[in-house]
Structure formats: C-alpha cells, structure tokens
C-alpha cells in the first residue's frame, strides 16, 4: 500500500510541475462539506491511505504533510507512510501555518474552492496575504489522477410519511418563509445534506452511514 501512496504523491507532484504550482491542499471534505464522504469522493484517502473522518493533506514539490486531530494520532501512523508525509495536528499545527513555514514567499498554493467554506477562504486569504498566492482550481487534480474512481451511488429517494417525521414539508417551508420575511431576505440557500432531507422529508442511501441523498 505504501508503494501505491508513493506513486500517487509522485503523480500529484508531476501535476504541480505541469501546472506551474508549488503546493496543493487536499481536505477530507468533498463538495457537500459533510463529515461523511461517499466512496467516490474519498480524495484524501485515495492520495494518502488515511481513512479517518477529518483531516487534510498538503503536497508540495519536495515535501508533504498530513493534518489530523487527536482521534487519529495512532491510526495515521499506521496508514500514512512517514517517509512521505510529516504528521501534524489539525488544530494545533494547522495546514496554513505549515504552508507559511514550509514554502518560500510568493509560492503558488492551489485549492479546490468547492471543498472549503466561505469562512475558511476568508481566513486563508487574510492569513496568507503577501506570503503565498492562493490559486483557485476549476477542476480537482485528484479527480484527474484517480483512474479507477468508483461511480457515485445514486439511491432511490424515499419520501417519509408526515406522521413518521412530525411535520409536513409544506409547513417547514412556510416556517422558513416566515423567517425570511422577518429578516427582510429574499432567499435562503441550503447546502447541508441533512438539512435538505429534513426540509423535504426525504431519505436516501447515497452516503455510507447517513440516510441522505447528494443534493
């Protein structure tokens, strides 16, 4: 498995060189920003071998680091080769600090904006300003390199009976409309899978361990 990880890291470095970039950030999160990620979006696992539910990796042309929290300090050492990755604490030694300390000023650091919250981006731009250049990607490099990527699971959507969930979708939407009017807002955007399934009283099996549909 470690040989496979080495090959994948090398492929990521080739991609960096081809695109004239110095580093790329690969978080555990996918474009739905949930803790549980469907198999076809397990990009961090594909790259590093790490199977935990929180973390991130940064690959540079010369070095790499993986960032996990205290739950995974033992696991990460078993799954991710030490000769390829430095082990760092996700909260105490965050990726952005590591980037500032590891890369020369003016380096180009790539990220896929779909995998990050607006709050993360705002903080990252402030922290990295005048140190390194954040480069927005329109396509994820892992998706291009992952040749045997599994197909997404598209499960049947199950509509829940109102008596099983306690409130109709129509009344939930009316409640939200009332909140919007009170706030003087025109619309609310829901992005979290469980929130969408709650609102519409639907369930599905698109994500392992969660009764949701990708939406």
Summarize the structure.
By secondary structure, the chain is α/β, with parallel strands linked by helices. The chain is built from nine helices and eight strands.
Give an overview in words:
This protein is α/β, with parallel strands linked by helices and 215 residues long. Helices cover 38% and strands 14% of the residues. The chain contains nine helices and eight strands. Strands 4-3-2-1-5-6 form a six-stranded mixed sheet, with helices on both faces. It has a two-stranded antiparallel sheet with strand order 7-8. The longest helix is centred in the first third of the chain and has 17 residues, at 2-18.
From the structure above, extract its key features.
215 residues; 6-stranded mixed sheet; two-stranded antiparallel ribbon; globular
SSE layout and pairings?
Layout: H1 2-18, E1 23-27, H2 43-48, E2 56-60, E3 64-68, H3 73-79, E4 86-89, H4 95-102, E5 108-111, H5 118-128, E6 133-136, H6 141-145, E7 158-159, H7 162-165, H8 169-183, H9 193-200, E8 202-203
Parallel strand pairs: 1-5, 3-4, 5-6
Antiparallel strand pairs: 1-2, 2-3, 7-8
Evaluate the radius of gyration.
Answer: 20 Å
Number of helices: 9
Oligomeric description of these chains: single chain
Number of strands: 8
Biggest sheet, spatial arrangement of strands: 4-3-2-1-5-6
Mean pLDDT across residues: 96
* Biggest sheet details: 6 strands, mixed
Amount of helix:
25-40%
Low-confidence stretches: none
Approximate strand percentage: 5-15%
What is the H-and-E element order? HEHEEHEHEHEHEHHHE
What gross morphology would you assign? globular
Question: Roughly how many Å apart are the termini?
Answer: 33 Å
- The structure class reads alpha/beta
């Amino acid at each position: 498995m470690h040989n496979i990880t080495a090959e994948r890291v090398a492929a990521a470095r080739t991609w960096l060189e081809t695109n004239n970039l110095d580093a790329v950030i690969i978080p555990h999160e996918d474009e739905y920003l949930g803790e549980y990620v469907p198999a076809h979006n397990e990009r961090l696992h594909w790259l590093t071998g790490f199977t935990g539910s929180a973390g991130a990796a940064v690959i540079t042309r010369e070095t790499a680091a993986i960032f996990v929290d205290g739950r995974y300090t033992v696991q990460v050492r078993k799954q991710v080769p030490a000769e390829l990755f430095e082990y760092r604490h996700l909260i105490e030694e965050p990726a952005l600090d590591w980037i500032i300390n590891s890369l020369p000023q003016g380096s180009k650091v790539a990220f896929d904006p779909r995998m990050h919250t607006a709050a993360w981006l705002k903080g990252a731009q402030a922290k990295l300003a005048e140190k390194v250049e954040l480069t927005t990607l329109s396509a994820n490099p892992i998706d291009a390199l992952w040749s045997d990527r599994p197909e997404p699971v598209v499960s049947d959507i199950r509509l829940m009976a109102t008596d099983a969930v306690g409130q109709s979708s129509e009344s939930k939407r009316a409640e939200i409309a009332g909140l919007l009017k009170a706030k003087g807002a025109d619309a609310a955007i829901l992005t979290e899978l469980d929130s969408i399934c709650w609102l519409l009283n639907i369930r599905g099996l698109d994500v392992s361990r969660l009764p949701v549909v990708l939406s």
